[in-house]
Amino acid sequence: MNRAILAVAVLGLSLATAQPLQNRILIARSLDGLDWQRTGIVFCDSADVPDAVRGPDQRFYVHYQGLWDPRRDGIMVAISTDGLSNWERHQVSIPGTETWPGKPCDPDVIMFGDTFRLYFTGDPTGDGSPETHSAVSRDGWNFVLEPGIRFEVQNRAVLDPSLIRTGDTFRYFAGGADPGVNWHALSTDGLVFTRQPDVVLDSLMLSNGLALDTGYRFYGFRNLLPCGIKSLFSADGGTWTPEPGWRLQIDSTSPLEYRYVKDAAVVRADSGFIMYYVTRKREAALEESREPRRHGMGQLPSFVRGVLRLRGDSREHAGCRAELLDISGRKVTDLVSGANDVSGLAPGVYFVRSGLSSGLKVLLGE
Fold first, then answer.
1. Mean pLDDT of 336-362
2. What are the distances in angstroms from CA 194 to CA 58, 106, 172?
3. For residue 284, is pLDDT > 80?
4. Which residue among 20, 50, 89, 182 has the highest number of C-beta atoms inside a 10 angstrom radius?
């Protein structure tokens, strides 16, 4: 993709590109899916956006965005008999996507008997409006691309698909809509989706849903204050009600957690539930903004509290329109050349997107 060269300064806040390299996935356990205890187990350093299922062999399959090599990330899968240790890891192969400008990312898996169907974000044309695509596999890592697009919105980004099967209905949610809003669609076969009215659910970005004995639960997270992981319950999959309290919030005393907890993927275990969730690595702060041109930034930022400053490296870039998006791709605000007040925003991952850019991922920290 052609990326506009923008100098992005977050003044009074720290700035960094947010890639799997800067995040880690941790593990928590629960007996009821509501009250969670951290295990202190690092599932994977340098990883993001997990999704978890039990395979036909009853092993745990966790798909996530990880590092294929030090300079390149992609979808991976880790397989374990207990969901906690002794992981077998594979790069996920989807032949036919190698030349896509917007590579496959944001995995979400639904099981069809002994078949894995992977829903993922991709941009095969490089038009800056990624869509949801799908592929199928018998082993969980060698996938065959299915033709067509599962869900798209004209001239808008569709990011981080999350699906749940309720009876004979596939319920689809994704980010990229306005702040606090989820794209929503329904399908009877998991391939052809009909768009439904956008959904607002406690200002959450929905990350993972699963069936319970008494209904269904969806986990989601907030990118704006107060931040953390929450959950919703539905008896039929059609009407969702926020469940009281938080499932997890950042533990500022933990050496493993930093800045946020997000993207919960939850799976049933033999006893209770296991959660795989994302946080920031503390040591990543040492690497912030060292190589601005490598990440499409024109120059190092200067710092004044509470201001995001955009400067173009040319007259063409200086006049371009830009938007600030949250982690789900939802528009937070328009940006102008020069100073922008961001003092009201919570720390977290955001995107700066211009008319010339597919989106520069940045981190606003305390």
1. 66
2. 32, 21, 10
3. no
4. 50
Q: Could you identify the residue written with the tokens 């078949």? A: 115
Count CB neighbours of 29 within 10 A.
Answer: 17
**Residue from 327, 323, 322 nearest 350 by CA:** 327
Q: Which CATH architecture has domain 20-282?
A: 5 Propeller (2.115)
In angstroms, the CA 63 to CA 26 distance is: 14
- Whether the bond between 107 and the residue before it is cis, its omega within 30 degrees of 0, is no
DSSP 1-20: -----EEEEEETS------G
Identify the residue whose tokens are 């979808």.
75
How far is 134 from 148, CA to CA, in rounded Å? 8
Residue labelled with tokens 């299915």: 146
317 phi/psi in degrees, rounded to 5? -70, -35
Under a CB-based contact definition with an 8 Å cutoff, are residues 30 and 248 in contact?
no
Q: Residues of CATH 2.115.10.20 domain(s) within the chain?
A: 20-282
**Identity of the residue numbered 309:** R
The position carrying tokens 């993207």 is 263
Decide if domain 6-13+288-364 falls under CATH 1.10.3470.
Answer: no
> In the chain, which segments carry CATH 2.60.40?
6-13+288-364
Q: What's the pLDDT at 5?
A: 30
**Model-level pTM?**
0.77
In 103-121, which positions are buried (b, 16+ CB within 10 angstroms) versus exposed (e)?
A: bbbbbbbbeeeeebbbbbb
